[in-house]
């Protein structure tokens, strides 16, 4: 029986090397955007990364680019309410969306962020895929469901990336993967493949690089 939402397989040598070369290029912070008018020109394709606070988004972006401190983590609610743009060479943007799920963030801040996010997702023609990060220790939570629904309604294909896979024992991790699969099956915009990663160990990084390079080459 075919598994719905299988784990992404290790890329072949050619794809792996192409992904490595893409991310061997210089990564640079471009700007933090707080309004649609501030977005850089849509002159290249982009992929974005979304995830609730402390899911390991900054660590994953840093692991992908091999640039320590490129994306900075912040545990302070309201501090990272910007869409952060990074160049990955001359033809790709990596877009870091603000962490969501701060229960104690001021309501006005949350509403402003949600409005900007909706505008960005529905209005950015060069966006090829959103990567929704899910903590392997916790699985899909209510706030994750909200972002997935937003991606469904914006008709943006999103792919689930499970982070911190090394922090969970194999049996427990399998339970969480099953929970994530069940959650994804309700979302029409979900890409039918999960990427399992550990920024600390480097697991899944080559796979994700190859996937992003494939989107760039399409």
TrEMBL record:
One Pfam family linked to the record: MMR_HSR1
Among HAMAP family, the record links this protein to: GTPase_EngB (MF_00321)
Is-annotated flag, keyword Mitochondrion?
no
Q: Which UniProt keywords apply?
A: Cell cycle, Cell division, GTP-binding, Magnesium, Metal-binding, Nucleotide-binding, Septation
Give me any GO biological process, just one.
division septum assembly
Q: Which GO terms describe its molecular function?
A: GTP binding; metal ion binding
What cofactor(s) does the depicted protein rely on?
Mg(2+)
**Gene3D superfamilies given in the database record:** P-loop containing nucleotide triphosphate hydrolases
Family affiliation? Belongs to the TRAFAC class TrmE-Era-EngA-EngB-Septin-like GTPase superfamily. EngB GTPase family.
Question: So which domain of life are we looking at?
Answer: Bacteria
Q: Which InterPro entries match?
A: G_ENGB_dom, GTP-bd, GTP-bd_ribosome_bio_YsxC, P-loop_NTPase
Q: Which GO terms describe its cellular component?
A: cytosol
Q: Does the keyword Nucleus apply?
A: no
Name-wise, this protein is Probable GTP-binding protein EngB
Q: What does this protein do?
A: Necessary for normal cell division and for the maintenance of normal septation.
Q: Which residues form the EngB-type G domain?
A: 43-218
- Species of origin reads Tritonibacter multivorans
């Amino acid at each position: 029986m075919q598994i719905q939402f299988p784990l992404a397989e290790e890329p072949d040598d050619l794809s792996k090397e192409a992904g490595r070369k893409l991310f061997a290029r210089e990564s640079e912070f471009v700007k933090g955007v707080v309004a649609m008018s501030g977005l850089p020109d849509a002159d290249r394709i982009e992929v974005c990364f979304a995830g609730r606070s402390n899911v390991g988004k900054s660590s994953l972006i840093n692991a992908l680019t091999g640039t320590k401190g490129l994306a900075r983590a912040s545990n302070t609610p309201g501090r990272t309410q910007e869409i952060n743009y990074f160049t990955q060479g001359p033809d790709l943007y990596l877009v870091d969306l603000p962490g969501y799920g701060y229960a104690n963030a001021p309501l006005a801040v949350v509403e402003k962020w949600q409005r900007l996010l909706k505008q960005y997702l529905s209005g950015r023609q060069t966006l090829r895929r959103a990567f929704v990060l899910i903590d392997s220790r916790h699985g899909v939570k209510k706030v994750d469901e909200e972002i997935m629904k937003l991606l469904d309604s914006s008709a943006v294909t999103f792919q689930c990336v499970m982070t911190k896979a090394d922090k969970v024992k194999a049996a427990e991790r399998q339970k969480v993967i099953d929970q994530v699969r069940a959650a994804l099956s309700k979302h029409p915009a979900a890409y039918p493949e999960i990427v399992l990663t550990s920024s600390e160990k480097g697991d899944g990084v080559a796979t994700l690089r190859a996937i992003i390079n494939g989107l760039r080459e399409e």
